[in-house]
Amino acid sequence: MRHLTDLLFTTHPHQRIRLVQSGLASLLMLACVLALHYMRLAGLTDGRWLWPWTAFSLIGLLVAFALIRFGWTLHLADPSMTMAQMLYAIACAAAGYMIAGSAHGAVPLILAVVLMFGMFGMSNGQVVFVGAYALVLFGAAMIVMSRVDPQHYPAEVEVAYFLLTAIVIGGVVVLASRLSAMRERLREQRRELQQALARIRELATHDELTGLLNRRRMQELLQEERERSLRAGHPWCVALIDVDHFKQVNDRLGHAAGDEVLRGLAHSGRGQTRKSDVLARWGGEEFVLLLKDAEMDAARAAVERWRQALAAQPLHAAATRVPVRFSAGVAQHAPGESVEQTLARADAALYQAKSRGRDQVVVAPLGTPPVEHAAQ
Question: Fewer CB atoms near the end CB (10 Å): N or C, the chain?
Answer without folding.
Answer: N
